[in-house]
Amino acid sequence: MKFLRNLLAAxxxxxxxxxxxxxxxxxxxxxxxxxxxxxxxKKNSVLELQLKRPISDYVGDNAMDPFAGALYEQSQGLDExxxxxxxxxxxxxxxxxxxxxxxxxxxxxxTQAIRKALEAFKTSGKFVYxxxxxxxxxxxxxxxxxxxxFMNPVGALDFRGLSSEVLFFKDLQEKTGVKMEVIRHGKYxxxxxxxxSNEMSEANRTQIKELIGSLWNSMLEDISKxxxxxxxxxxxxxxxxGGRTPEYAKETGLLDGVIFFDEYQQKLRNAxxxxxDDDMNLVSLxxxxxxxxxxxxxKGADKIAVxxxxxxxxxxxxxxxxxxxxxxxxxxxxxxxxDKVKAIVLRVNSPGGSALTSDIIWREIELAxxxxxxxxxxxxxxxxGGYYIAVGADKIFAEPTTITGSIGVFxxxxxxxxxxxxxxxNAEQVGTNKNSVEYSxxxxxxxxxxxxxxxxxxxTYNTFLQRVAQGRNISMAQADSLAQGRVWSGVDAKRMxxxxxxxxxxDAIDEAANMAELGDYGLKKYxxxxxxxxxxxxxxxxxxxxxxxxxxxxxxxxxxxSILKQVxxxxxxxxxxxxxxxxxxxx
Length: 587
Description:
This is Protease-4. The chain is of the alpha/beta class.
């Protein structure tokens, strides 16, 4: 009976495997066949900028990988979006851009970069129009670059100023008996407040207020130029919720028209000088990216390597959403040893993470810097460990809306002794030496262990300060005065000397070219991620887990699930951390 059961299981397993292979073969044939088709752009077309998916700085799809676009379309690459807009600027077939987007899933610095690209597009004399059923603040920030902004008569516009929410877990720990033991550098006060307090300290409140105030001022400056409304008046509109209805938004100058979508389409027709019965040629961003990727703007035998480091910093190989020393150092070494590569630009978009991994990457940047110029471009956030790896470069660029700094280290170690006592668990340990039992989840932390970890924290913090002092050519005392876990906007980081220039990735590339004394040059992008097919096959085993996560989120709600993920992330951290002090959710 057991034999028959095993035989049946084996037969079913084989059938499933053959079925998967057959389906993949069909998909492969279909994709390969369709890949031969070219995207045709008709004359007098409008590029429709619909940003429907989350935006990453770099997706890293291989154009020769037939599964790349079919299996993994969760995110859009910022580099591809900016390149498409740049190509469209000089494309005679494209007469204008229509932004038809709701709920943009991008960071503030990414949004600012797209906005700058659209400003450059407008210098060609082509139009940019935008329409929305509703505008969140980030959506409106992008829309404010347009020549004309339109909204649905029953739509809504959110324009109220920025805010941030920080979750505190002290009561949760006491009620559950699961506690986070916190060990930190003495001056690094705000990093662990959520675990040791139920409310925000005045010092922390002040730094967050100053941070989001600086970000808001950068947004207002851009919106003011786009809409010709003084920043002071924009603040009045925000304070009085002067854009809360479409009519109010139009009266205050935030909008140019309150119309239905079919009326907006007619305005596009008018801009194209075509009749009501003529076909309007709208080109989707995805289709245009296929065309624009075939057009190389920067050409030359000499190359500048652009290495994208995005996500949390964790020890290991790394991937599209995780910075590991594996793929990042491999990319740095490859760029360093390539004679055609004359300079390196490291794009950092990270809240930090493992201090050990940060230092390993920092060392590789130092070695590369001995052979060729290295310039850093900061994205949405380059804080703590993200700043750690950036400080090894020759020059650092950041967007005005970049969040950076947070120079500090800490350790959080879960402890379940309270829960164990409540539910009747008693743990006993046996060891061969005095310190052989290092730490137990089920016992209160000993003073000896705490002192041992504190020693490691202090050592790592001093190393971090040395890297900052060396990289920024300042004293240890000056580095310490800029540290203590304080986070800064790009504008304030420039003022404090933590970065060299305000600018985007393109500015950083231009500077790298100047430092390497290059005229014409091309770009080489790193790292090379696993192919779409490889990631698909790896994810087959994790499909069940993803389904469970989706069910949990649906059951308890998005907000509760977000809290659960934060707690889970903290519980899984290993080693000394150089990361953002908390999840800074700016709305």
